[in-house]
Amino acid sequence: MEDNGEATASTVAGAEDGGSGNIKVKVSYGSNDFDVLISPQSTFADLKNVIAKTTGLDPEVQNLLFRGKEKDDQEGLDMAGVKDNTKVIVMEKPLGKEVDIVKDEEIEEKVEEISRGVEAVSLVRKENDEFAEQVASLEAVVSSGTQVADKDFVFLTEMLMRQLLKLDEIDAQGEGRTQRKLEVRRVQALVDKLDDLKTVNSKLSVETPETASSESSLQSSKM
Asked: Helix (H, G, I), strand (E, B), or coil: what is residue 147?
């Protein structure tokens, strides 16, 4: 038998093995089983190319398993122990690295989006803390029996309504959305308290000196 030194490979279906020293490799791909002829001096990359001609499966998406292990493209068949009638299993690779990278980027973007939402809600919360202090100051004055000017209630109510608009404009996800809901409820509770205080305040008798004093105190605490 004359060996011309060239690594030749072909599928059994269309091959005319002229005694070139090829071996027959049994290939299993899904529910399909077929044989290919290939030189034992070929690599697994060469085997992938032969398999591609039969299956149409691009070599880049093929995983070749031999004896339960995935084989490297550059590894030689003879060095790996592939002999005549050896069985090789072909598996299609899972989603490529490019897709994995895209998924990682999507996760990072999601985390950043949540972080931005949490930060935005936090800034509004700090402002609400100041308005809450002003509502508490009004409550203390009204509870003492001193009537407060209506404009103080109007001012705080308008400011709190603006805070609700700010919260509504925040595009929050995950933890940010939860915190936004809590802050909305807090602001709404402050607005309700102002309404209750305004009702109580309207029933108090007007005492000019104390009213003026309370107005001066509130104005100094406004933002």
From this structure: coil
Residue type (1 letter), 37: L
Terminal Cα distance for the chain, rounded? 99
| pLDDT tens per residue, range 60-77 | 888 899 988 889 999 999
Measured between alpha carbons, how far is 222 from 156 in angstroms, rounded to an integer? Answer: 9
| CA–CA gap between residue 34 and residue 57 (Å, rounded) | 14
* Cβ-contact 133, 105 below 8 angstroms: no
Cα 24 from Cα 27, distance rounded (Å): 9
Phi, psi of 112 (to 5 degrees): -65, -40
pLDDT band at 105 (very low <50, low <70, confident <90, very high): low
Residue 84: enclosing H or E segment and its boundaries?
A: none
φ and ψ at 111, to 5 degrees? -65, -45
Task: Count Cβ atoms within 10 A of the Cβ of residue 38 and give its class: 0-12 exposed, 13-18 middle, 19 or more buried.
Answer: buried
Q: Which helix (H) or strand (E) holds 29?
A: strand 23-29
- How far apart are alpha carbons 173 and 110 in whole angstroms? 8
